Structure formats: structure tokens, C-alpha cells
Amino acid sequence: MKKLLIPSLLLLLVVYKVYNDHKETPHKETHQHWTYQGETSPEHWAEIEKNSDCNGKKQSPINIIDINTKPTNTNENPLDIMYSPNTQINKVINNGHSIQFNFEAGDSIRYHNHTYHLAQIHFHEPSEHTINGVRYPLEIHLVHTGKNKEYTVMSVLAEEGEESQLFEFFESFLPLKEHETKEIHQSLDLSTLFPKNANFYSYGGSLTTPPCTESVNWVVFKQPIIVSVEEVLKLKKNMPKDNYRNEQPIYDREVALNLY
Ligand SMILES: [Zn+2]
């Protein structure tokens, strides 16, 4: 009997190990990543991205209707753009959703007496925000991060006309394949990115991509800037088709129109 006991125990161990190895075989990750088209398009983001805010009541973008905005005519400007004339660009990334330029730390804005640091800018073609139902050819997002995961995103809309020297600079790093990165380490003056007229709409919303975080102060400049058709087309070729999220319900939110 004793002779048989050890081989039997060994057999039992082998059987147990085979069973457990099988049980622990990792299943292939089935999580689908969000996109702008098809089964993972914006209408499905809330189902795909569990624990996101994508189904929330303070989502972006929105359609801004002029007659529904609240004009505020204050002497005290709530927005102070304190960029240096030598903003340092670190690199450009094609992240599969947009073309994004990342900045070195150093530039910031003051908004309603809080500081937000310029992190990156990226593009949407055509625009995400619409003004009185009008969708612009391009929208530029300047993302700033504050304390406690709060953001201030400045949005510049663009319409087509003369070419923009700043866009010629941005696009000199294209084409970029999906997930390709190029190091830049150059400085540039971002002041020409803003429209001459500083009037802007403001409201509380969200990031327009998952996790659709609802802690974003939106600053949307009323006057569009001008870029050329070719500049829009070049960006378009390097980004997913129609990389914009559809209009979100405004619910009880108010949009202010800050006039100077
Ligand atoms: Zn964006």
C-alpha cells in the first residue's frame, strides 16, 4: 500500500495543477476602446466606458444659442492669459483620436482667480461646439489643468480663408501615423492663435472624450480665427473622420457671454 501512496499523491497533484492552470488561463481583454465611428461611437461611450461621466447632466459640447446666453459686461476680466511669447512645445502625438501638441510646464492662465496650467492643444474637424446651430470647419482646444482635477479648456473656432502662419508651423510636423510621436522642443508665440475680439462664452461642462469628466470650465471664443482650406484638409487627413462628439443636452445650465 505504502508503495502506491506516493505515486497516487503525485498523480493527484498533477491533476490539480492541470485543472488550476486551465482555470487561470487569462481571458483575452474584450474591452472595446472608444472611437468616433460605428459600434464604439459617441452614442455608445456611456456603455463602453463604465464609471465615466459620459451619461451625466453637465456634458460637452453644446449648441450655444446667442439669445439664450446671459451677457455679462464687467470691467473685471475673469480671464487672464499669461502665456510667455516663447511657449515651449515638447512633442506632437497622433493619439488615434486627434493630433495633440504637448507643452512643457510654464505657461498658465488665471480664470476666476484660479490658476490653470497649459498642458496641450488638439484639434476637432469639424467643430464640436456649434453656435446658433452652425458647425465650424475646425475647433482648437487648449487644455489647462488646475487643482483637484479641474480643467479650463479654451476653445477657438476656425473658419476658412487666408492661411495661418501658426498652422503652417503646427502642420510642418505632419503627417503622423496613428500612435506616432515626434519630439519638437521648440518655442512659439501662441498669441496669434486667439481671435482679435476677446468676447467669449463660458459654461460648466465636461471633457468631450471619455471619461467625459464633469469638471471643466469652458471658455469658447465668439469670434472665429481664419485658417486656409488646405490647412483644415491637412489636419483632417491625420485624424479620424469627423472626430467630434455630438451636441449634448444643456439641462439647467446657463451660458454666459463675457463682453469687453
Ligand atoms: Zn477636444
Automatic annotation (TrEMBL):
Pfam families in the record: Carb_anhydrase
Similarity field: Belongs to the alpha-carbonic anhydrase family.
EC annotation from Swiss-Prot or TrEMBL: 4.2.1.1
Organism of origin: Polaribacter aquimarinus
Protein name per its UniProtKB record: Carbonic anhydrase
Keywords of this entry: Lyase, Metal-binding, Zinc
The UniProt record lists the keyword Lyase: yes
Domain of life: Bacteria
Function according to Swiss-Prot or TrEMBL: Reversible hydration of carbon dioxide.
Catalytic reaction list: hydrogencarbonate + H(+) = CO2 + H2O
GO MF annotation terms: carbonate dehydratase activity; zinc ion binding
InterPro entries reported for this sequence: Alpha_CA_prokaryot-like, CA_dom, CA_dom_sf, Carbonic_anhydrase_a-class, Carbonic_anhydrase_a-class_CS
Cofactor: Zn(2+)
Residue ranges of every copy of the Alpha-carbonic anhydrase domain listed in the record: 32-259
